[in-house]
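Could someone model 4'-deoxy-4'-aminopyridoxal-5'-phosphate with this protein?
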Amino acid sequence: MPAKAKTLDRERIRTMTARELEAFNAKTPKSAALYERARKTLACGIGSSYQWREPWPIYLREGKGSHLWDIDGNEYLDYLNGFGSMVQGHAHPAIVKAVQEQVLHGQQFSEPVEDGVDVAEELARRWKLPKWRFTNTGSESTMDAIRIARAVTHRDGVMKIFGSYHGHHDYVMVSVPGNYGDFGPRDDYGSFPYGAGIPDAVVQMTVAVPFNDLDAMESRLKKLAAADKVPACMIMEPAMMNIGIVLPEPGYLQGVRELTKKYGVLLIFDEVKTGLTVAPGGGTEHFGVMPDMVALAKSLGGGIPCGAIGGSDEVFAEVENFNVWQVGTFNGNPLAMAAAKATLFEILTSEGYEHLARIRGRLADGCDAVIEKYGLPAYTVTLGAKGCVTFTTEKVVDYQSYCDYQDAEMMDLAWLYEANRGIYAAPGRDQEFTISVQHSLEDADRYAEVFGELAAELTA
Ligand code: PMP
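Reply:
Sure, complex below.
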């Protein structure tokens, strides 16, 4: 945070946003035209509602290294990186080779392959969790982990962090970011469905507590215990990664581990984002707190849909004795396993992580220098291959403080401003970035340079 932060001129932010939007619209006519065609058959012209943007989505054509091209031929430095799923960078030679070799020998068997054994052994080594299974997405990983927790504990309830996202199945489409008005008292937050189509009975089974607040969590657990409704599991990201980045306060994760043990609740770390991007053994290694299960996906498959769950022998006994059916036609798919093996053994090696730390450090230093120089009301947070600039001078520690302090207008402006200058950032999430092993120091400097131009104009 800057020593002395300026107050931003709201009118200027709006004028600049309107100007940048007009400029970006003018640069993307082919996306506009394809959208008109696409929306006739593809709902909203997109494959996932998270790909929506106004007035039209940006259709991409190519990715190479740290660069992206859209169908209008605009070139960008990619800091979205598939929402954190491409820490390998685009078309990494090791992934291309592994997938090309496998594709010539069959794409899908629905039977196990040796690469899958190599991947499971490496994940077990990295996470120090003995047993693993594969899935195809993060949602499948969290869904399967929760089902196993329910089987182990013979309970139905799920505890999560208010404002965290864990995928699109019913168990966790509850109390994620949304317009819920008053959430209720911190130790008794309401359970709110994220969109329509989620049965109320399922919504009520999931209770949410604030991040970084052990007192609220313990108080909620006490109330649930008194009502004979202790949850099966606590599912959480070790660091919140969907509202910019919110780090756990010192001792918080250890406290969660103690509380979950005290109440017999299984602890699931959702490492769909933190896993592989933060450290070889994800947030589990980085923060030094051992959960009962982890859920992985995103970066594991280097662009091929691939997820995994890992856990203790005790927990996985429910899978091994066939009480829980952990299944899927594409689980352990040979292309995904080839890409995951290349990721783990050739790309995300110790040199890979050193490179990520170097680039991330340069990027964060560059952004910090801009914030300080222009007195921007903002601060940076970084973790592994990821980081963000949060537009407020108040420290965000949980979803409530994020709602209280986030500067939504600045988030929109920054995205457009950067897109017009060849930087593709994560939309609508502060200035969250994921770098890849193919990003360079020059790429980091370019990001900071554009951020500096934005800050100069904002504060002039
Ligand atoms: N967990 C977390 C923490 C995530 O960020 C996401 C996706 N953004 C998911 C689960 C769901 O993953 P997927 O979209 O692959 O189903």
